[in-house]
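Input chain follows. Return structure tokens only.
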Amino acid sequence: MGIRLGNLTIAAVEEKHKFRLLDAEREMLESMRQNNAQTIEDGKFHVFDEPMTMFVCDSTETRAAVLNILSKYNSDIKGQLGVGYQEANHG
């Protein structure tokens, strides 16, 4: 796994990728975002900035919720934006 850097807010993602969420969608995503990328909490994600914008979610369920919102804007989003998940380390 390569090195990822950054900690984007949802507003920063919108600005960087030139699209605009509805207020309720922005609030929902911001409530799910966490600043610390060390251990992603249940129902949360972290947004890295480099080498590309990447939402790293705690689970496939959280990933699906994020994609449900962002997929409405596929034709508006400029540049590369990814949504994935990282399995928790157990033991």
